[in-house]
Structure formats: structure tokens, C-alpha cells
Amino acid sequence: MWTVIDEPIANRTFETLNDLEDLVYHRCQSLLHQQDLIRGLTGFHWWIQVGV
Where are the alpha helices (DSSP H) in 1-52? Predict the structure, then answer.
């Protein structure tokens, strides 16, 4: 999962740790709406049930 999560982070610098945390948080939030991607990468067939 890290490969997908760190996509917007790669080759960037951040002023503060909070800036980095915010970006990772928002990336994880957007991945919650990409259930097919997560299921395909992890093999977790039950992923669609998370957050229901």
C-alpha cells in the first residue's frame, strides 16, 4: 500500500511534519473511495465493507 500512498509525496519536501501528515491523511481519504484499486492491490475481498 505504501507505493500508492506515497505517490503524491515522492520527490517533495515539506516545511513541517504536519504538512506531510496532512497530505498522507488526504491521500488515505481519497483511497477510501477507490475500493477496486485497494482490493486489487491487497487481495482483501472484504475491503468494500469497510466504512459501510
Answer: 2-5, 17-31, 35-42
Domain boundaries, the chain: 2-49
Question: Phi then psi for 6, rounded to 5 degrees?
Answer: -85, 5
What cell does 30 get? 481519497
Q: pLDDT tens digits, residue range 2-28?
A: 777 777 788 889 999 999 999 989 888
C-alpha cell of residue 5: 500512498
pTM of the model: 0.61
Secondary structure of the chain: what % helix, strand, coil (to 5)? 60, 0, 40
**Cell numbers given for 25:** 491523511
In this structure, the dihedral spanned by the alpha carbons of residues 14, 19, 29 and 5, taken in order and rounded to 10 degrees, is 20
